[in-house]
């Protein structure tokens, strides 16, 4: 996926969440619903998160410097990690606090129909954002399941938006149930329970994202499929075998490949150089994001290891 990949989904989510946040806050001021307040803060956090994802895409495009010779591609991982932390602190923790507080001190809702109307509109807007994220993700998901895509994607923004939107939709349904049951039964405890459920949901999503973004920040290597292709393209022509290889993503669109390769014995120096250049060309043709390739010629003294 290109550096700007997923931008449409991020912008759609930003616009939707900004509008939803305003509507929810108005609804909270009218109704006093704790689940509405929790959802309001959740939408504010999501709006900020989309802004941070766009910031990460922008700063990641900076040119490499002597201090950062491999560039700033990991900025996208960093800001996605910050987004996960914000979802946990501003979303989950606040919702849990508000829900527990309202369980201890229940308050009757006023104008619950206003809250229901706002939540229904919010579900419509959030559905649009979610469908946009799904459409963008399908362009790069391939045959992987959605869970595999979230777990294995080296591009952080779309998995973040997908999980945020899914959490937002489920949270809206929970808020709607809380407000609806409180209205029907006259018991405000259901609204508070809806708020607690929203907090737990956001906590689970945030923890998943924190784990995944932390893994990307530390550095992940090529997928098994890409690694097999790389090794296959290297071990062709005058390259007898790959003795040892290491890979790492230094940004969503930039894979570093470092390998020790065994060449045919007694090759002249110019043929050694040509064999290395040809190997790099073959790899880049099949795995375009393998932009940085460092190959070391050697004698065949070991077996192939992947790491």
Layout of helices and strands:
Elements (H helix, E strand, L loop, with lengths): L6 H25 L2 H26 L15 H30 L7 H30 L4 H7 L4 H29 L3 H30 L5 H11 L4 E13 L2 E10 L5 H18 L5 E7 L6 E2 L1
Helix pairs in contact: 1-2, 1-4, 1-6, 2-3, 2-6, 2-7, 3-7, 4-6, 6-7, 8-9
InterPro entries: Cation_efflux, Cation_efflux_TM, Cation_efflux_TMD_sf, SLC30A9
Organism: Lentzea fradiae
Main location: membrane
Give the proportion of residues in helices.
Answer: 55-70%
State the helix count: 9
Instruction: Assign the CATH architecture of the largest domain.
Output: Up-down Bundle
Shape: elongated
CATH topology name of the largest domain: Alpha-lytic protease prodomain-like
Termini separation comes to 24 Å
State the name of the first-level CATH class of the largest domain: Mainly Alpha
Structural class of the secondary elements? Answer: alpha/beta
Low-confidence residue ranges: none
What is the number of E strands?
4
How many domain units?
Answer: 2
Helix/strand order, N-terminal first? HHHHHHHHEEHEE
Cα radius of gyration in angstroms = 25 Å
What is the beta-strand fraction? Answer: 5-15%
The major beta sheet can be summarized as: 4 strands, mixed
Subcellular location: Membrane
Domain Cation efflux protein transmembrane: 10-217
GO molecular function, one term: monoatomic cation transmembrane transporter activity
Membrane topology: Multi-pass membrane protein
Can you describe this structure?
The chain has 307 residues and is an alpha/beta fold. The chain has 2 domains: 7-218, Cation efflux protein transmembrane domain (Alpha-lytic protease prodomain-like), CATH 1.20.1510; 224-306, 2-Layer Sandwich (Alpha-Beta Plaits), CATH 3.30.70.1350. The protein is 67% helix and 10% strand. It has 9 helices and 4 strands. It has a 4-stranded mixed beta sheet. A hairpin with a 2-residue loop joins strand 1 and strand 2 (254-263). The radius of gyration is 25 Å and the shape is elongated. The protein starts with 6 loop residues before the first helix and ends with a strand. Its main location: membrane. Residues 10-217 form the Cation efflux protein transmembrane domain. InterPro entries: Cation_efflux (IPR002524), Cation_efflux_TM (IPR058533), Cation_efflux_TMD_sf (IPR027469), SLC30A9 (IPR040177).
């Amino acid at each position: 996926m290109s550096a700007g990949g997923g931008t449409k989904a991020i912008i759609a989510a930003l616009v939707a969440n900004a509008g939803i946040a305003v509507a929810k806050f108005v609804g909270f001021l009218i109704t006093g619903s704790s689940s509405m307040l929790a959802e309001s803060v959740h939408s504010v956090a999501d709006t900020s998160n989309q802004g941070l994802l766009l910031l990460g895409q922008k700063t990641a495009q900076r040119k490499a410097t002597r201090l950062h010779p491999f560039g700033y591609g990991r900025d996208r991982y960093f800001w996605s990690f910050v987004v996960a932390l914000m979802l946990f602190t501003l979303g989950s923790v606040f919702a849990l606090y508000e829900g527990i507080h309202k369980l201890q001190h229940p308050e009757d809702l006023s104008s619950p129909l206003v809250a229901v109307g706002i939540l229904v509109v919010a579900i419509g807007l959030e559905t649009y954002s979610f469908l946009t994220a799904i459409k963008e993700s399908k362009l790069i998901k391939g045959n992987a399941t959605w869970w595999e895509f979230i777990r294995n994607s080296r591009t952080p923004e779309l998995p973040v938006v997908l999980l945020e939107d899914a959490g937002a939709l489920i949270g809206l349904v929970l808020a709607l149930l809380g407000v609806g049951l409180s209205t029907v039964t006259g018991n405000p405890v259901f609204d508070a329970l809806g708020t607690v459920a929203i907090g737990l949901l956001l906590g689970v999503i945030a923890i998943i994202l924190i784990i995944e973004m932390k893994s990307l920040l530390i550095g992940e290597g090529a997928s098994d499929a890409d690694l097999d292709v790389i090794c296959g393209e290297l071990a062709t022509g005058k390259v007898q075998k790959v003795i040892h290889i290491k890979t790492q993503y230094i940004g969503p669109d930039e894979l570093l490949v470092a390998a020790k390769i065994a060449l045919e014995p007694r090759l002249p120096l110019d043929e050694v150089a040509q064999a290395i250049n040809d190997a790099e060309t073959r790899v880049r043709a099949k795995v375009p994001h393998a932009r940085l390739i460092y190959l070391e010629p050697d004698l065949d003294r070991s077996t192939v290891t992947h790491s």
